[in-house]
Amino acid sequence: MTGQDPAAVRIDTSKPHPARMYDWFLGGKDNYPVDEEMARQLLTVDARGREMALVNRAFMHRAIRWLATHGVRQYLDIGTGIPTEPNLHQIAQGVAPESRIVYCDNDPIVLAHAAALLRSTPEGATEYIQADARDPEEILERAGKTLDFTQPIALSMLALLHFVGDEDGAEDIVRKLVEKLPSGSYLVLSHVTGDFDPEGAAKAVGMYKARGLTLRPRSRDELARFFDGLEFVEPGVTLTADWHAELGEPVPVAGDEPIPGWAAVARKP
Q1: Which uninterrupted H or E stretch holds 127?
Q2: For site-directed labelling of 82, which of 27, 88, 112, 196 has its Cα 20 to 30 A away?
Q3: CA-based nearest residue to 139, from 113, 125, 118, 157
């Protein structure tokens, strides 16, 4: 697998972690009271926290299904989160069993559950690496042991970059990763935005900051900059819930206000 022993994992339960909060929003059990407390506080800003997580998850399913049906057979998924079926590899290998997937996350609890991410088809492969998104060189070096970087790769960073501040070089991280991808590869992003409720977004940022965490909502134009030099798949940057909605079942959402997230898929020419 990775050379890392899940039995030796030490999980910090003194402060919340985005992957475990996401698990709580999805109704999972792999989270701690500190994660639930933070998640419930976020619900006071926008009561649709669970819907936000479900909408993002549904986008992943649709985007990977689209990529798989358009010939992509390799995937590098950074910011994987705690396994929730169907996982990315199950979507991709359901279309093309020979698909190869590398998952990456920095939360030790994801490593503890990595076996669920490694149930590949015999024809394909899955791997999990424990690494931080802010170290793209390490991710690329280790991913190269499973993926062929002479053939197209879909790089997915779903609901991740809003946890990477400008001071940590979010755009540089994406640029370094995309530079190493061959022509015909794809970048897949989803991202929280404050475009629809700037005041609420500011409150959420403050909640994260008070716990030593980063939250950086970005506008539609700011998300689009991550795709500089790439060719958007139609319809370009859209609300996360709207990107090729015909490829999956809609997520029921309360009210008429949009779920505050943007998403897009683009091809490297």
Answers
A1: strand 125-130
A2: 196
A3: 157
Dihedral over Cα of 74, 244, 194, 205: its sign: negative
pTM of the model: 0.94
242 vs 261: CA distance, rounded Å: 10
Does residue 6 have a pLDDT over 70? no
Q: What is the DSSP letter of 100?
A: E
For 19, residues 6+ apart whose C-beta sits below 8 A from its C-beta are 79, 81, 82, 105, 107, 109, 110
Residues 6+ apart with CB under 8 A from 138: 131, 132
Cα 179 to Cα 96, 141, 161, 260, distances in angstroms: 26, 13, 18, 29
Instruction: Tokens for 257, please give them.
Output: 């206000």
Contact between 191 and 262 (Cβ < 8 Å): yes
* Backbone Cα Rg of the chain: 17
Q: What is the pLDDT of residues 84-133, one digit of tens each?
A: 889 999 999 999 999 999 999 998 888 888 887 889 999 999 999 999 99
